[in-house]
Amino acid sequence: MKKFLGSLALASILVSSAFAAANTNVGCGLGSKLIDKQGLIWNLFQITTNGTSGNQTFGITSGTSGCQYQGLVMDTRTQEFVASNMDTLSKEIAQGKGESLDTFVELLQVEDKEGFKLALQENYNKLYASKDAQMADVLSNAATL
């Protein structure tokens, strides 16, 4: 009985953490195309279908199943870095050099680092369109360069 209760507790922790990580945007793939409903349970079905059918990788590579190439890597680390370094990045992008700018470009996994830094500098007013620019604005504007 103790093993059963322990297993049940462990399962509930794992399930609750999966629910906490669930997102309304589950990405592209067959699951996202077949199941168009919103909600936590539906998102889990979408994720499971995307993952088990193996088509999400193909969709990302080929641009099918609702997948689109975004050009830049916009993972959580990059978002957190930009959010934490908005002022420093603003100054360094305007100057075209600096440690935070180098880290930003590295996190984006850009091949032509110097060319991209120059493009960021030349498009500074587009990146920081207002004095109250937010992290999401900077990242989405950088993705268009």
What does this structure look like?
- This protein folds into two domains: 61 residues, no CATH class; 68 residues, no CATH class.
- It is mainly alpha-helical and 145 residues long.
- The chain is elongated.
Using only CA atoms, what is the Rg? Answer: 20 Å
Structural class label: mainly alpha
Task: Domain count, please report it.
Answer: 2
Shape descriptor reads: elongated
Number of strands: 0
Point out poorly predicted stretches: 8-24
Helix content range of the residues, please? 55-70%
The end-to-end distance, rounded to whole angstroms, is 60 Å
Which band does the percent of strand residues land in? under 5%
Order of helices and strands: HHHHHHHHHH
Report the mean per-residue pLDDT as an integer: 75
What oligomeric state best describes the polypeptide chains here?
single chain
* Biggest sheet layout: none
Number of helices: 10
List keywords for this structure.
145 residues, mainly alpha, 2 domains, 10 helices, 68% helix
Question: What order do the helices and strands come in, and which of them pair?
Answer:
Layout: H1 2-21, H2 30-34, H3 40-53, H4 55-62, H5 76-84, H6 86-95, H7 99-107, H8 113-122, H9 124-127, H10 135-143
Helix pairs in contact: 6-7
What is this structure, in a nutshell?
With 145 residues, the chain is mainly α.
